[in-house]
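Q: I'm writing up a methods section and want to include an example of the input and output format. Could you take the sequence below and give the corresponding predicted structure tokens, formatted cleanly so I can copy it straight into the document?
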Amino acid sequence: MAIDTGEIAGVIRRELEKYQGRLQTEHVGYVLQVGDGIAHVYGLDSAMYGELVRFPGGVIGMVLNLERDAVGCIVFGDAAAVREGDQVSATGRVMEVPVGEQLLGRVVSALGEGLDGGPAVSVERTRPIEVIAPGVLERQQVKEPLQTGLKAIDSMIPIGRGQRELIIGDRQIGKSEILIDTIINQKDDPRRPVCIYVAIGQKLSSVAQVVQTLREAGAMPYTIVVCATASDPAPLQFVVPYAGCAMGEEFLWQGRDVLVAYDDLTRHAQAYRQLSLLLRRPPGREAYPGDVFYLHSRLLERACKLSDSNGGGSLTALPIIETQAGDISAYIPTNVISITDGQIYLERDLFHAGVRPAVNVGLSVSRVGGSAQVKAMRQVAGRLRLDLAQYAELSAFAQFSSDLDKNTKAQLARGKRLVELLKQDRRVPMPVERQVMALFAGVNGLLDDIPVEQIRAWEAGFLTFMDSSHPEIGAGIRASKALGEGVPAQLEAAVREYAQRKG
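A: Here is the clean output for your methods example:
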């Protein structure tokens, strides 16, 4: 008997129509091997790089390796809950984090979950943690200053909105303090940026101390703290800087200014090295994988100043790199130096000598330069770096010579006073007009007769005197951002008036 294939096909079609809208397909695989935060999964043939996957018990992971017969996934959360043979579901989505105003003032994890004991984070929008950085035509020149409140940085190593400025130095010499003081200094800025502090591999107690400091200074209402502490698994430490950057990009594309501080990228690179070795990627120099440069470049390139047609927002990146015994020529430091637009180098010897912030002016540079300074600061500090460089050279020479001419002695004396004037206690960032007035006196030799040990006391008294007796000078500098005609003479007269009152 001949088989009517058309009739059979019709029967199959009618049976399938009964289930129309009720059939759901799911892309699943099975765990082959799991350990140390890494799961090798068989069966996810169409998985893409960076795709989220779901393990039993609500544990999520992300595809990081695409191999011939399996995919390598990093596991977020409790990897001990994942067992060999467990079913794994692909989600078809790349990793995203919650973004928006609701995150301001909160301490959140790399996945956007609240860690501060507050209500659950509830937002309407999410953003992928990895995006392509804006192209050249979508950007504009970095030209607006981002004031740190630190005289040594704002005068000689200025930072612009949209810049990537590296802070580099040995451990425990004040790198994180610069980030915290910069965030606190934004409190009274009329164009206050949204600040995001990303803690990578820090001790939980250190992060709690930073949060407490920001809260006491009144800086938390405009700050988001995103952290993956040392006790968190390496996968969370790997994704946390990208999550913090994504949170900042939400405000960037709204036309707002954003400051993202990464503390620190050395631990980020170490977490990525750990994951790469566990995924059996070939190790390279210092056992880092071959793409460790791309690890940081694709993060820091997202910092930019957008063009006016894109809203004119900016995202400034301040990454920290930790050196060993001041070696800035090591692998990770040289990588990040080549990615950023300059570096602030902190030196251990200066720190122990009492120079704080311990900025080495000779090795520090801002590739944006004077375009990221207000005009008043350019007018005052134009030759400050040169004076300090000459002082450093002469002081090294003077150690071997007791017979110095009058000019050399005068240069050494002024250099000592400038170094003393640039010292600054932590947690007391200084408005730019007060910086300008103090530096004006030092650069123009008006402090040459004051003993070095009295310079800082003189500065505090002089600025108090200016606030009470000549407030119009500071207000004029703040409003015009320049030393207008006659202002230098007024400042010089004010310095002499204060000297007479004090004398």
